[in-house]
Amino acid sequence: MKIFCIGRNYVAHAIELNNEIPDEPVIFMKPESALLPPNASFHYPEFTNDLHYECELVFRISKNGKNIAATDALLYCDAITVGIDFTARDIQNKLKGKGLPWEKAKAWDHSAIIGTWVSMNEIKNLKDINFCLYKNKEIVQQGNSGLMINDLENIIAHISIYFSLCEGDLIFTGTPAGVGVVSVGDDLESFIENDSLLSLNIQ
Ligand code: ZN
């Protein structure tokens, strides 16, 4: 199983981190060991002092494919949820400053959190999905799939130029504006529309 993540997929988030708006999808990956197992507790890693949440829509690949046309892309995807792409921002800034790869900031054990899966059949309009993140009962991020720079179909098509997509692979589709820090003791809760799909306590 592979975890693909899209960087800078919302204009307002690219701007808040002083990044350029990309002209094609920015792709990075997390290994399978990055996924927090179901019901496991999340522990603040000792190697960072600037742990950020990034709330994102996450899609699950349902069959193997390569060089998938955007018009066929939805045939390869069966479920959606929300996830958190945890980022050690201090480490990422150091690596970005030197032009080095991001893995130590993004791909560490348990840096990928996913919520309860919802069938794609239940999504009426893929271009208008509202999602949000609360920290300690206060809303900190609000996104809508219609604001993605690259939509799901284009993301799947682009990834599959370079990588075989396999059943069970996950795609984190980028975070909207409002990323920020978490501390030990914080509670995170994330929704698609009015459905609470993910809750996590930082330990
Ligand atoms: Zn992200």
How many distinct beta strands?
Answer: 14
Shape: globular
Beta percentage is: 25-35%
- Our measurement of the CA-to-CA distance between the termini, rounded to an integer number of angstroms, reads 27 Å
Residue ranges: pLDDT <50 for 5 or more in a row? none
- CATH third-level topology: Fumarylacetoacetate hydrolase, domain 2
Mean pLDDT, all residues: 96
CATH class identity? Alpha Beta
What would you give as the CATH superfamily?
Answer: Fumarylacetoacetase-like, C-terminal domain
Total DSSP helices: 4
Radius of gyration: 16 Å
Give every kind of bound small molecule, once each.
zinc ion
Please provide the ordered H/E string of secondary-structure elements: EHEEEEEHHEEEEHEEEE
Broad structural category: alpha+beta
Would you write up a description of this structure?
- The structure is a single chain.
- This protein has 203 residues and is of the alpha+beta class.
- It has one domain: Alpha-Beta Complex (Fumarylacetoacetate hydrolase, domain 2), CATH 3.90.850.
- Helices cover 15% and strands 33% of the residues.
- The chain has 4 helices and 14 strands.
- The strands form 3 sheets. Strands 1, 2, 4, 5, 7, 8 and 11 form a 7-stranded mixed β-sheet that branches. The chain has a 4-stranded antiparallel β-sheet with strand order 10-9-13-14, with no helix packed on it.
- β13 and β14 form a beta hairpin.
- The longest helix has 11 residues.
- The two termini are 27 Å apart.
- The model has no long low-confidence stretch (mean pLDDT 96).
- Bound molecules: zinc ion (ZN).
- Zinc ion (ZN) binds next to loops.
